[in-house]
Amino acid sequence: MKDIATPTRTKEILQKYGFSFKKSLGQNFLIDPNILRRITDTAELTKDTGAIEIGPGIGALTEHLARTAGKVVAFEIDQRLLPILADTLSPYDNVNIIHEDVLKADVAQIVEQEFVELDNLMVVANLPYYVTTPIIMKLLEEGVPFKGIVVMLQKEVADRISARPGTKEYGSLSIAIQYYMEAETAFIVPKTVFMPQPNVDSAVIKLLRREHPAVEVDNEKFFFTVTRSSFAQRRKTILNNLTNQLPEGKAKKDSILEALSKANIDPSRRGESLSLEEFARLANALYPAFG
Ligand code: SAM
Questions:
Q1: 10-residue stretch averages of pLDDT, the chain, 291 residues long
Q2: I need a labelling partner for 222 at 20 to 30 A (CA). Which of 137, 160, 190, 288 fits?
Q3: Residue after which a domain boundary falls, among 174, 209, 244
């Protein structure tokens, strides 16, 4: 049987079921088996690995995951795809499709039930582009015990996730993800491998969980408040942003100046120039006055 992801087989499947794409659900299906192989290679799957997929579509990537991983659990929001998946994935007995909005699902609990024997979990997906960041943040924040994430997303978001300090892409998203994960862009993907073609360029990113968070902070929630506040207005100085954004920041300007001095950070610098270590020092110095 030909791969689902060949252009001819994809067209045949879509025609057989009279399927029409829903742009609002970010439905851009992959039609290039080589790209799928590169994705599964990047995820370094083995039969001892479990794979969690978000948005299987008609099963193009799911099929490659089923061939290389021990078990696949895939969350699909669009009910119209369920009978199609039952058909296209019928040769594989190690796939479980869950009809749920991944943003509403109790992913941690489902994963615990579904992967009793496999402790080597990877999230692998061609994400729906309208919700890439909320999906990644949900997976990170809800304690789903995966080792890493290999996902296709907009190149612009991939650039922000893996950005280093001092670049225009570096911001609170880079920090939120790099705090937990080592992030790198694995490869860039041309628009031509999708049906229909998206309007933006795409990339595959690889995130691997760090054994410990990248920096030590006294309070994680406050650390993220400080990083978000520092980028609220990118052209403003760190002092300006913190004064305007932190609760009672204006009244507590002296405490902010004191904390900046304690953390050895010039108040006239911009957020984008601070490393994770500097943000951690700053958040820890500010915490007694704002925590
Ligand atoms: N994996 C397929 C492929 O690569 O050809 C399809 C990828 S397509 C970019 C995104 C898929 O995510 C679609 O099947 C869409 O219906 C599904 N989807 C969109 N929003 C979702 C959500 N909130 N929860 C679960 N699936 C979602």
A1: 93 98 97 97 96 98 97 98 98 98 96 86 97 95 93 97 96 96 97 96 97 96 96 96 96 96 98 98 97 79
A2: 160
A3: 209
